[in-house]
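Design a sequence for this backbone.
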């Protein structure tokens, strides 16, 4: 389960919901009290949010920023929330800040938003909401996996919608996948039951894909189970 700095529930509330691995997303606040993902040295422009003048409904608060003066958020102009946080983000964020973060915590750190083989790693393009024309994460995954050479786990998110997508990612070397919008949309459609249903569907589809591919365990999913577009030039002469 991943908790964003922007969540409307506190870290403690989310952690108390049950066992399992929990992730917390840090942003690069200029105050240096928190540090960002590599993919957000600057905030994006979500045009729908600007058009709709997105702001938090009055009954919701950003629980992890209780000390923040939200009164300063301009509720009349564009997306006041986005504009406010854009001001708070440290735009000079760089690799030295990552070293600093490693020094102040013993917690494992995963970098999210990596699309080339640079460091380790959640291969993510921010749901393709940050920058137009970024490559699909599934296309970038193998390059990153090859560069990492097993030194750290490589995860992927972005566009995972079916069990077959999970299978493809694992076959290309991902240690696991994260999902975003399927959870958000199912939550909006049918609350907790909706999220349970989506997770069950993904699990069932993934198990079926494994069975139909002759894989009895995760370890048996290999690169040979899939053909990627960039394999075609290699295998075409044999066809
Ligand atoms: C409404 C919305 C808000 C998001 N906000 C953030 C964010 O604040 N920080 C971040 O790193 N990613 C954010 N993401 C991207 C997700 O963390 C995740 O990378 C992406 O949604 C995964 O792709 P998927 O939705 O296709 O599964 C957001 C995605 C959505 C849909």
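Sequence:
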């Amino acid at each position: 389960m991943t908790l964003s700095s922007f969540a409307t529930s506190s870290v403690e509330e989310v952690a108390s919901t049950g066992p399992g691995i929990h992730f917390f997303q840090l942003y690069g606040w200029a105050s240096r009290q928190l540090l960002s993902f590599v993919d957000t040295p600057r905030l994006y422009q979500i045009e729908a949010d600007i058009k709709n003048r997105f702001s938090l409904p009055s009954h919701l608060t950003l629980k992890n920023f209780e000390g923040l003066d939200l009164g300063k958020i301009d509720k009349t102009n564009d997306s006041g929330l986005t504009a406010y946080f854009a001001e708070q983000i440290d735009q000079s964020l760089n690799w030295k800040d990552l070293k600093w973060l490693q020094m102040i915590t013993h917690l494992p750190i995963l970098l999210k938003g990596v699309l080339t083989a640079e460091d380790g790693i959640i291969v993510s393009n921010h749901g393709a909401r940050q920058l137009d024309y970024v490559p699909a994460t599934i296309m970038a995954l193998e390059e990153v996996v090859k560069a990492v050479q097993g030194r750290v786990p490589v995860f992927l998110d972005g566009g995972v919608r079916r069990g077959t997508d999970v299978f493809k990612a694992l076959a290309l070397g991902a240690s696991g996948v994260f999902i975003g919008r399927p959870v958000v949309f199912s939550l909006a459609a049918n609350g907790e039951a909706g999220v349970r249903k989506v997770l069950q569907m993904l699990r069932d589809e993934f198990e079926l894909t494994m069975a139909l591919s002759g894989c009895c365990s995760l370890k048996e999913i290999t690169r040979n189970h899939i053909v990627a577009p960039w394999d075609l030039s290699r295998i075409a002469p044999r066809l």
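The mean pLDDT is 81.
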